[in-house]
Design goal:
Elements: E1 3-7, H1 10-31, E2 37-38, E3 41-42, H2 43-64, E4 66-71, E5 74-77, E6 82-85, E7 89-97, E8 111-118, E9 124-126, H3 132-140, E10 145-146, H4 148-171, H5 179-207, E11 226-227
Parallel strand pairs: 7-10, 9-11
Antiparallel strand pairs: 1-4, 2-3, 4-5, 5-6, 7-8, 8-9
Helix pairs in contact: 1-2, 1-4, 4-5
Length: 228
């Protein structure tokens, strides 16, 4: 039986934080001709350390933290040792859960997650799963309803914004931005904050009020879904 495993993508957030730090250091070092010495490590060695850390993180999450696999018959969830046949699945969605202000998750990281809506049981939320899972579900069973269009647009927006931010940090880090650029940053930041709430609202309107964000005004203490 051919199956495709999907692992946690949380390491991408960790690598992005490292990348912001490193691009800032490299840009300042290049533009302002300042030689950094971080506890005896120069910028060149920091770059090497970042590369090694990236390889280790990718290797670890790729081989030791897989959470589910998809095959022609359905979806297997490793943590609860449960196989869900496609015949029991009504719909599958890929959404973002906001963690702003959460006690458990102190960062503003939006967890990209897979929601499996079952016909006769609670939905299952699998945190930190790649959007590619939707495409493989569609490949193996075209009858299952998925939100592939909205999820793809949200992911593309996120990738473009992160890439642009890293590019600007690396190429033009001089500590000064004009009002127009500041306004653009604010608008983009607001959009990124709103996307998780819009996605969850749409899915709750379609499937019922099952999903809630991990934020103080929601509480995220309900038992409407199984969380993995």
């Amino acid at each position: 039986m051919k199956k495709i495993k999907f692992h946690s993508i949380y390491y991408r957030f960790i690598l992005f934080i490292f990348a912001i730090f490193l691009t800032s250091i490299n840009s300042i070092d290049r533009v302002n001709k300042v030689t950094f010495d971080f506890k005896g490590l120069k910028v060149e060695y920091l770059n090497i350390c970042f590369f090694v850390i990236s390889i280790v993180l990718i290797w670890y999450f790729e081989f030791f933290t897989w959470k589910l696999y998809i095959c022609k018959e359905g979806i297997y969830l490793k943590k609860i040792d449960l196989f869900v046949p496609f015949e029991e699945i009504n719909s599958v969605s890929h959404v973002w859960f906001s963690s702003i202000g959460s006690v458990k998750h102190r960062s503003s990281y939006s967890r990209k997650s897979l929601v499996i809506y079952r016909k006769n049981d609670k939905p299952i939320v699998v945190y930190n799963i790649s959007l590619l899972a939707l495409y493989f579900i569609k490949k193996y069973n075209s009858k299952v309803e998925i939100n592939i269009m909205s999820a793809t647009l949200a992911t593309l927006f996120n990738v473009l914004v992160n890439t642009w931010f890293l590019y600007r940090t690396f190429t033009d880090f001089n500590g000064m931005i004009n009002y127009t650029e500041l306004f653009i940053y604010i608008i983009i930041f607001i959009i990124k904050l709103l996307i998780p709430f819009i996605m969850i609202r749409i899915q709750n309107k379609i499937h019922g009020d099952y999903l809630e964000h991990d934020v103080p005004w929601y509480g995220w203490g309900n038992d409407k879904v199984i969380k993995l």
